[in-house]
Amino acid sequence: MSACKKIVVGAFVSGALLFGATVPAFAAAKVDKDTFDGWKLYKRERCETCHGPTAEGAAAFPNLVNSLKNIDKAKFVDVVTNGTAKGMPAHKANAKVMDGMEKLYKFVKGRSDGTVPAGELEAGE
User: Fold this and answer.
1) Could you tell me the residue range of the domain that residue 94 belongs to?
2) Is residue 56 within 8 Å of residue 63, measured between CB atoms?
3) Is residue 58 part of a domain?
4) What is the pTM assigned to this prediction?
5) Total number of domains constituting the chain
6) pLDDT, tens only, 96-119
7) Beta bridge partners of 29
């Protein structure tokens, strides 16, 4: 982009914000309701604190996108329910997580399979 175009775009955005107009945001990806509910649970229960907002991990925490390529659903449920010696806390006393386990798995597995994109989601039909 040329310097002139950058100035024009910057002026437009600045002017739009100054006069109260909204700058279009990126649209959220539509997913089925169960996947959406799993994503909300992932965020609400703060899984992203360790595993990142996209489930791709952090420096010292597992990348769930990769992990779900190597473990089955039973192992996922076991780890979430009982935790691990490596620091994953047990969630067996967390009724929200236990009740939403199927949906949580569906979200994380979808991220792993590439059927659920990173970023904001919304429930589709």
Assistant:
1) 28-123
2) yes
3) yes
4) 0.77
5) 1
6) 999 999 999 999 999 999 999 999
7) 121
